[in-house]
Amino acid sequence: MAESEKETLKRQRRAPKPVSPEAYADAYALAQQVLQGSLSQAEAEKALTARYDLGDRVALGYIGNYLSMKRGAPKVRSTIAADGWRFLLDQFEKEGMLALQRALSVLWEHIEYLPGPEPKLRKVHADYIGKVAQHIEGDPAATLAEQIAASLRDGDEARRRRLDVAPVYPEAVLVATRAFRRNADVIAEVLVQAAGVCQECGREAPFRRLDGTPYLEVHHLTPLAQGGTDTVANAIALCPNCHRERHYGSIFSG
Ligand SMILES: [Zn+2]
Ligand SMILES: [Zn+2]
């Protein structure tokens, strides 16, 4: 065999075979089995590689990337085709806009990590970020606070004229927002340590809940959104007045 022919063969062996849409779906089904505990990740990757005659590391992308995204990893390192990303994003979209948004931030991080310009992946990102944007309203509470301030500035007469013709049933809106899953043990521990007394003003909780426990609210000293930890050390129990003051009062805000 001529040297150049050998080289060609070698290159063909190395070049990744295109992955079929059928394989995306199969990879996804195998990954579900890993999540349910009926297969190990290695077994799932082996099965996919064998079924579709894939290269060594291909299954790592289609199963591994999905699994690490499901586990909340902020980045993935295995390369998958643009259509493979579309398939994955479609699956996350079924879980809801927040899941899609999280998956998109992983994709974006991946695009930035790759050395090339990645026009195809950027197109995928652009197409799906549009879907997320359609569902996002700004923070309704923040918007409302601005509108109230404007209404007060506007004068009583104009406001009352508007009230006369305003719709009486509020419009329902869909809101996408990033929130943190808080540790219930932290909240419980802080409440136990406070023993019904506000840790700001030192007064008893203003009322009791239906179950008889004193009503206090657990507040994070450094907000979670600013990188604060969800720990007992970063939390205090406050009465509703003191809690509101922490968030809206002139001493604490701005
Ligand atoms: Zn208080
Ligand atoms: Zn708070």
Descriptive account of the structure:
- With 254 residues, the protein is mainly alpha-helical.
- It has two domains: 16-135, no CATH class; 184-248, DNA Binding (I), subunit A.
- The chain contains eleven helices and two strands.
- A two-stranded antiparallel sheet has the order 1-2.
- Helix 5 (82-95) packs parallel to helix 7 (119-135).
- The longest helix has 17 residues, at 97-113.
- The structure holds zinc ion (2 copies).
- The site of one zinc ion has 8 residues, from helix 11.
- The site of one zinc ion has 4 residues, from helix 11.
For the biggest β-sheet, the strand order reads: 1-2
Q: Strand tally, please?
A: 2
* Residue share in helix: 55-70%
Rounded to an integer, what's the Rg over CA atoms?
A: 27 Å
Helices, strands, pairings?
Elements: H1 3-14, H2 21-36, H3 41-52, H4 58-70, H5 82-95, H6 97-113, H7 119-135, H8 140-154, H9 156-165, H10 184-194, E1 217-220, E2 235-238, H11 240-248
Bound molecules: zinc ion (ZN) (2 copies).
What would you say about this model in short?
The protein is mostly helical.
Fill in the keyword field for this structure.
single chain, 254 residues, mainly alpha, two-stranded antiparallel ribbon, 57% helix
